[in-house]
Amino acid sequence: MDWTTMNILSSSVQPSSLSLSPSQSPSRSPSRSPSQSSSRSPSILPWKDNPHDLSFVLSSDQVAQLERPSNFGFNVNTSDYCKQVLNIDLEKVPGRTRRWSGLSGPIAAKQDDTAPPAPNHLLKDPDLASVGCAYLPDYNIIVCLNVDKDGKPCRAGIPLAELLTHCYCAHSIPFCKRGYSKQQGSVTPIQKDFIYRILSRYPDIIATLHELRDLRPRADQKGPIAHILGPIDGAACTRCDFSIWIPKSDSKSKTDPLRTHWAMHVNSSPGVSHARRGRDLLLEGFFKRCSIQSFDHKRGVWMRVLSGQATSHSGPRKTFDQLLASSNQRLQVSVIADRTPLLPFFQQNRAYNLVSPLSAAEISRLIALPAQRGPDSHLYKLKKIVISRFRKLCEAIPKASGLIRELLVMPRPGEKQMIDRFNCPIRQSTISAYALEEVRLLCFILRCVQKKWFSVEGSLRASQLEGYPHIELTQDQHKISKKLFQIIEAPDTPSSTLESIVDAILKSIYMPSNTLSMLENPFINPSAVYTVFRSLRQQGGFDEPKTLTVYYARIQFGIRLTVMHTIQEEYQATKDLLPPEGDDNHELYDQFMSKMRDLINRWATEDHISPLSFVLECMRAMSRIARRAPSRCTVMWDLEDKQITVLNHSVVINQYFKAVQKSLFNLARKVSQDILFGIEFPDESLNLPSAEEETHDTDTIGFGLFSLPIDNSDGTPSPAAYFLEELTKRGEICHRDGDQIIWNHQKLHQWLLDLSSAWSEMFTLMHLLALPARGSEMTIWQHSNSSISSRHLFFSKSLQTLITQSNYNKTSAITGLYKHILRPIPFPLATILTKLLRIIRPVETFAFTSQVTERDRQAIREVYGTYIFISNTKVWDSCKLSAALKAWFIRELQVPFGLSLHRHFAQALQRKFLTDKNKNMIEKVANQGFGHGQEVAGLNYAREGGDLNIDATARQMMERVGAGWIQMHGIQVSS
Q1: How many domains are contained in the chain?
Q2: Strand, coil or helix: what is 846?
Q3: What is the dihedral sign for C-alpha 398, 404, 408, 411?
C-alpha cells in the first residue's frame, strides 16, 4: 500500500456549514486597477482584500439603452449576451487583451520544441471551488470538476457566461439556479457579484462560446492538455486549424463533416483541388489522422493534440493522514403559564389592563425585528448599529473598574449575592441575543412615533388612543426619537452619528426625567410598556414564566450596561478636568465617586423607582411562579408496577427496555453497514481510548480523546485516513484525482443523511441510558476543549467506558453558577460513539471543508472539532434534540415523549427502581443527575456554590448511580 498518496488534505483545506454555494461578497470596493500578473499565476486574493476596477459593469440605464438582438435566443454566450444578461462589457475589463478572431484565418501557434512543457496546473479559486470548478491558467478557462450522472468527472471547459447554466443544468448546484422570468433579472445580484469577482481576478478568462472556439494549443504544450477530457482519434485539415472526429463508415448521417469543411476551402480559394465523390479524403492528403481533444465535446470544438511528453500530474504527494489533519486542525486560542398564578401578578401591576383591549398580532408587529426588505427596511440599518454598539460596550466590561462592576450587581440587604460582579456573556451569539432586545425596543418606539401612537408628557389623553397601543414620551425622548427617525431615513448617515443618537435615546429611556410619575403609573416609560408587550404570545395570552425570565434577564442586562457606560463617560469627563501635571485632585475624586454611587444607586438597584426596578420585579415574580407551579404532567403506576402513565400516555416498562436494547443493536448495524460500508478496520481502530490516553487535560485548545493526530511520524495511517482511502478505492462517494478528492454530490448527500440519522439515534440512546440531561446542557456537549468551555467527554478508569461530565452554566452566563454532573455511557454505545468521532467525523469535516470557500472553512472546522451533536455544519439546538427523542418514542412505543415528558417518565423510573430508602443517598445523587436546582438570590433556577471539579466521593456516587441506571435497562456497562 502506497501511503505517500495520503498527503492531500493539508493543501485542499485551509482555515475558514454543507454550504455548497458561494458565500456572499461584501459590498464592492473602490475602483482600483488589478495588479498585472502572468497567465499562469493570476491574483486569487479574497474579494475584500483584492479590490478591482468594476468599470466593466453596465449601469441599469446603460442596459436599458442596449438594442436587444432579434435572434437573442440563439446568441447565448456571446458578448451581446454578456451585456444583456450579466451587464458586462467585455471590452472595458481592465487588463483584458482577448479579442474574438471572427473565425478568420489560422490562429494556432507554431509548436516550440525547445520550450519546457506547459505545466497545466489547476488553480483552486475559492469561488470556483464552491461550485465544483477550478481555473486552468494556461488556457484561461474554467474546468468543471463535478461528477456527472454516470459517476465520472465532467472535466468540461466552461465559458464564464455559461458557468451558472452548466453547473445547475448538468450538476444541480443550488447556487447556480436562475429564475425563468422573461425580464433581465433572471440572474440574481449575488450571482452577478460572483461572476464579477471571477472576471476581475482573471481578466483574460474565456467568457463566451466564440472565444472558446478560438482556443488552440499553446506553443509550449507537449502532449494532451491535462485536466480536461482525454484525446480521441480524429483528423486535422492540412490547410487550417480545423480538427474533427472521423465519422464511422456505417454512419447514417447524410453529411460528411470532412467534405463539408473542404468545400469551404474550395469556395474561398479557386486553386484548391476539388474532393470528388468516392475519394477518401484521408488517403488523398486533404486531411491527416491525429489525436484530437476538446474542451467541450458537445460543442464540437476540437483541437489537434501536439506531440511531446506532457507534465505528469498523477503522482500523489500527501498522505490521507496529513489531508485529514489539515482539514480538522483548528486555530489555537488562549484559554481564558400556569394562568392561575400568572394572571394575578400582571393584574396587580396593571399590565393586564394595559394589554387587554389591544390586538396581540398588532403588538407582535410593533416589537418585531426589522427585515432587510419590506416596509421596515429603513430600520434594518438601526439593527446593525445597535448590535455594533452593544458589542463595543460588552468588550469594555472586563476593562471597567472592579468596584463599578461589583456595585452594579449589589444585592438587596439580607439577600445572598448571585454573582460577585457584572460580567460579560461569553458567547457572541448570547451578546447578539441581548442586543436584539434593544433593537426591538427602539423599533417599537419608532413605529409608535411613525403611526402617531404616542403622547408627549400627557399632552394627549389615553382615551383618544383607545384600542391602539400607545406610549408616553418626555420632551427629550420625543425630540431624540424624531431625530433618530430622520437620520435613519437619510441615505448616507455616518455610523458614528447614528450610534451617538442611539446612545442618547437609550439613556433617556433607561434614566428618564419623569420617574416621579412612574410611582403612580410605571407605563409612562416606554421600556416598561415594552417589557409587558414582550411578555405576550403572538397568538394571545402571556408566555410561559420560564421563557419570560430569559427575556427579562436580557432587558435588565442592557439597562445595567448603559448605566456602566454613563459612569465611564463621567469618569472621562472628570479626568479631562485634571491639571496638566496630572496630580490627583481629591475634590474631583470625591465628586466623581459621589456621582458614580448616585448613578448606580438611582438607576441600577431596586431601592428607587426606575425602569430597571420594574423589570427586576417582573423577573423575580416569574422565577417564583415557575418554581412553585405544579407539574402539568400526571404520572401514575399500575398496581403491579409494570406500566406507567404520563399525561394519559401509557408505557409498558418491559416493552420500553426491549425497545432500547433493539435500537442499540440496530444502531451498531447501521453504522457498520450504511456509514462505514462494511469496511474491515484493524482491531485497534475500534477500541475505546485507553487509560493512558485520558490525561484529564481540560486546558489545551483542540485536545480531546478523538482529536486527529497532526503528526503521524510512524507512517501508520489513522483510522480516518484508512476509511478515506477505502472510500476513494470504491469510487461511489468520491474518487481521487492527484491531490484532489472529487465528491459525487448525490451519493455524498445520501451518506450525510444516513449519518445524521445515526447521530439522532446516538443522541436518543445516550439520553435514555443515562439520567436525562436538559436540552440546553446537551447542545453544548464538546468532545474537545475550546476557548468557550472544557470538553465534556472523558474515559472512566473505574468503569472502563466513556462518560460525559457536564460543567454547564445553568443560568445562561448571568449568575455564574454551574452544574456538575457525571453520566456513564454503556460500553456498546461508547464503541459506536468511538467509530463516529474517531473514524467518521474527520472525513465528514473534510467533505464539507473541501467544498466551501476559504472564509467558511475555519467556522466549519471549529464546530465539527468541538461539539458532539452536529450535522450539516449546524450545532443541534434543543428543539432538534427533542424532535429526535419524540420520533423514537412514537416509532417504538407510540407515545409522544419529547425532552419534557421524558424527564417525568425517567424520574418516575428512578424513584421506583433506583432509590435507597434507608439513607436516600442514591436518590439525592440521582436528583442532582437530573440537573434539579435550588434557590439563589430570589431566583429559583440555580444552585449555590460549587467549583468546576467533582470530588472523588461525588464522582464515585454518580458512577454508581449511572451504572445502576444502565443495568436497569439490561445493557452492559463496562467492557
Answers
A1: 3
A2: helix
A3: positive
